[in-house]
Amino acid sequence: MKELSVDHLLGIKYLKEEDLHLIFETADHFKEVINRPIKKVPSLRDVTIANLFFENSTRTKLSFELAEKRLSADIINFSAAQSSVKKGETLIDTVNNILAMKVDMVVMRHPNPGAAEFLSKNVNACIVNAGDGTHEHPTQALLDAYSIREKFGEVAGKRIVIVGDILHSRVALSNIFALNMLGAEVKVCGPKSLLPKHIESLGVKVEPDFKKALRWCDAVNMLRVQNERMDKSYFPSIREYTQLYGLTLPLLKSLRKEIIILHPGPMNRGVEISSDVADSEQAIILDQVENGVAIRMAVIYLLAAKLIKPEA
């Protein structure tokens, strides 16, 4: 059986192109599973997974939980808001206490960039990064790229534009790594204040004009403005942002071609995307949600396969 080149999923930048293809092929299989009448497989019956969320999450947390249950894993859910972290316990102590309960894998979301990597070097368990600060969100990028592959047959040669708050977005960074690795052409678009200074060093081009970006692309990934990560105002007003970078139905129709629309969620309807666009045929936002479960099943299954290999 083919296996991943890594023991943890810390970020897309640590993966090879073959890893991405292996995850996608495995997700194809699991997508069939989750569309059957009986949606469970006994693959991980002896594996215990702890979901540690030190930051609020709805979709990612539910998606991981569902993926783990579909694989028949045992699950421990941990929310920092109700934990001893509030009493000053360190991250390593928290995780080691959980591992003492014989946990094999930790899925963690944390507000600090690098938290997942730090943990992988300091505790004895397989770590899956479910988002670390403004750094990476690898499973989101995998499901986005997988959804593009599903629509077009392949990602290589496709033109993808990522629009919005690139500066604060871990989704944007992981997407750039994944799409570049798979051979797509990537542009970013948004207010200058929301673009990192050296973004072009990541192998992407900046297109300041939203309409030009849309005319150029095959697919657009609309990011929300991450107000909770901002310590100051990065643009004059939400209204002005929407006028310049909001995706509306008249704008979509003016392109005279079909593009596909992605959004990692949660959506701010009426800001970066209008409701009629979000609910249109061209939007694959709900496909992304379904694909997220299959991708997370694939990642967990492939990493667990390395844990439960028979000793030589």
Secondary structure elements and pairings:
Blueprint: H1 17-34, E1 48-53, H2 59-70, E2 74-79, H3 91-99, E3 105-110, H4 115-122, E4 126-132, H5 138-152, E5 159-163, H6 170-181, E6 185-189, E7 205-206, H7 210-216, E8 219-222, H8 238-245, H9 249-253, E9 260-262, H10 275-278, H11 285-307
Parallel strand pairs: 1-2, 1-3, 3-4, 5-6, 5-8, 6-7, 8-9
Helix run count: 11
Q: What amount of the residues lies in strands? A: 5-15%
What coarse outline follows from CA principal-axis ratios? globular
| CATH topology group of the largest domain | Rossmann fold
Largest sheet: 5 strands, parallel
Number of domains: 2
Query: Spans of 5+ residues with little confidence (pLDDT < 50)?
Result: none
Strand order of the largest sheet: 7-6-5-8-9
What's the name of the CATH homologous superfamily of the largest domain? Aspartate/ornithine carbamoyltransferase
**Distance N terminus to C terminus?**
16 Å
Description:
Helix 2 links the parallel strand 1 (48-53) and strand 2 (74-79). The chain folds into two domains: 12-135 and 291-307, 3-Layer(aba) Sandwich (Rossmann fold), CATH 3.40.50; 138-288, Rossmann fold (3-Layer(aba) Sandwich). It is built from eleven helices and nine strands. It is an alpha/beta fold. The longest helix is centred in the C-terminal third of the chain and has 23 residues, at 285-307. The relative contact order is 0.16.
